[in-house]
Structures are given as structure tokens and as C-alpha cells.
Amino acid sequence: MKTNNKVKLIAISLSLILGSAGGNAQPMPHIAQPGENWVLQTERSDEFDIKDAEKWNFQTENYGVWSWKDENASVSDGILKLTTKRETHLRTFWDGCNKTKVPKYRLFYTSGVAKSRATGNYGYYEARIKGADKFPGVSPAFWMYSKIDRTLTNEGDVQYSEIDVVELTQKQTVQESDHDLHNIVIKDGAPKWMRPGSSPETNHNGYHLPFDPSEDFHTYGVNVTKNDITWYVDNVQVGYKKNLYWHREMNLTLSQGLRAPHTQWKCNQFYPSDNQSAQGFPTSMEIDYVRTWLKQ
Q1: Contacts for 200 with CB less than 8 Å, ≥ 6 apart
Q2: Which domains, and CATH codes, for the chain?
Q3: Which of 44, 60, 62, 270 has the greatest number of CB atoms lying within 10 Å of its CB?
Q4: Are 95 and 106 within 8 A, CB to CB?
Q5: Cβ pair 184, 191 in contact under 8 A
Q6: Residues forming beta bridges with residue 283, ordered by sequence position
Q7: What is the SS3 assignment for 219?
Q8: Beta strands at 100-111 and 67-68: parallel, antiparallel or unpaired
Q9: Which residues are catalytic?
């Protein structure tokens, strides 16, 4: 058994002992207050002892300028590894600028994803993650998102909700992290995308990490309630927003996407860039655990 797993088991055992003393025999989130009852949601939690395809979808729908592949997600020694590779291929691609699906569109990368089959909204979510060693070019992410429901057309209806627990976006430096929100809401009779760039007051939290996330594991968490959303890194609060639109059922997701210089953003989506260098690939993010708790 590797040292990391030993540490994990010791930490869980201590939590169990302490929890038992308080009448609740389970690991508890760091935000738990004395007397509170937080219940681990096992269908959206994993210590990654096995690759559990009943709990996670490793070959989910494609929506970026890379394609998900089941084989790019692997589990070994209690660690989930999601790997991005340079692999030229063809698939159908949504061209947002021309508003059409393009068959046999040429793309250059594949990557790994784990999307929960179960859904939820409120609760405390935490993952222990080590970022990729490539910089810049990839974005390790821990997030949750809903389906887009175009049948919701009344003023104020929310067609889509997304909460980014963390995106290691590598925008300017390797230490930049985003803890953002995305949504589609009906405004003035039409669906409107609200994103961090266009609606920073309600949708953006940026943070400069005091460490290089590729060098070691760190915990990234978010507490989602009916009224508030609060983000944490290593148990320190790093962001806060009012919960205005994020009440829909969402799938919990771990993934690694592409970013500049291998992408360019236009027409509200990513497109492949001219930079197709394979230098630095393959590259992986690693996940020690993901845990979801619901406060009773």
C-alpha cells in the first residue's frame, strides 16, 4: 500500500473515531459545527479504490475542442488519473459562429473525465487534487453542471446551472485559479448566458494560490445552500456569492480540458487554435478523493 493511501486511511479512521464520539460515525466536512449532522452522499463520493463505472461516466457527451475517452481515466493505488493526450481525430463539432454541426471536424486532443451518474444541488463538496505538470495549455477542473432545459421559457426561468469548485485555468501564472459560476436565464423573454467575464459581480471569483498546484495535493471545496455559495482551498475561504440561479440538479464532474495556447475563445465557445504542438503531452491531473456531504 502506498504512503498516500496510508495517510488517507489514518485520516478517515481519526474522523470515524471523532465522529463516533459525537454520535456520527463518518468523516465530516471541515465546516461542520458542533451538533450538526452531515451525511456523506456515497453516490457522489469516492476514495478511488476501483474505477467505478456504475458511479461515474468516463465517456460522457463531448462539448469542447477535445474528446473524452474512457481509457484516459485510470485508477491506481487509490488515485484517479485524468490524462490529456495529443491524438488527432475526427468527430461532429458544434460550430457556434455559424450555428451548425460540422461532421468529421478535425480535432487534436483527447482527455479524461469522471461525471457522476447521480445528481444533486445543495451540500458541501470537496476533492483532493494534484494539478497537471504542463503549463500552460490544460485546465484541471472540479465542477458540477445541469442539463440545458430549453422548455423553460418563462421570465426568470433558469435553463442551465454550473458551479466551478475550482478550475486551474493557468491564465497568467500556474497559481491562478477560478471559482466561478455559469448559467442560462430567461431575461426579457430570451435565454441569456451569464458567464464570469460578462457578469463578474454575480459569477466570478478569482484567486491567486499560495502554491504551485502541480507540485502536491490540495483540497478544493464549495458549500452550496439555497442562499449562498462559498468556496474553500485547503479549508480557507477564497470566494463567496449569493445563490441566485444555482438550484437545479447537477452532475458532479472531475475533468481536464484544454486552454490557450491550444484553444481560442470566440462565439461563446472554444475553438482549436493554430498551436498544435505535442510538447508537454500527455499530462495528467490526479484526484485522491471526492466527497459530498448533505446537511440534515
Answers
A1: none
A2: 36-295 (2.60.120.200)
A3: 44
A4: no
A5: yes
A6: 84
A7: strand
A8: parallel
A9: 162, 164, 167
**Do 129 and 285 meet the contact criterion of CB atoms below 8 Å apart?**
yes
Q: How many residues does the chain have?
A: 296
SS3 state of residue 8: helix
Closest CA to 253 of 79, 77, 56, 69: 56
Kindly give the confidence (pLDDT) of every residue in the chain, 296 residues in length, as a single tens digit, with 9 standing for 90 and above.
444 554 454 444 444 434 434 444 578 999 999 999 999 999 999 999 999 999 999 999 998 999 999 999 999 999 999 999 999 999 999 999 999 999 999 999 999 999 999 999 999 999 999 999 999 999 999 999 999 999 999 999 999 999 999 999 878 899 999 999 999 999 999 999 999 999 999 999 999 999 999 999 999 999 999 999 999 999 999 999 999 999 999 999 999 999 999 999 999 999 998 777 889 999 999 999 999 999 99
Is residue 238 within 8 A of residue 173, CB to CB? The reply is no
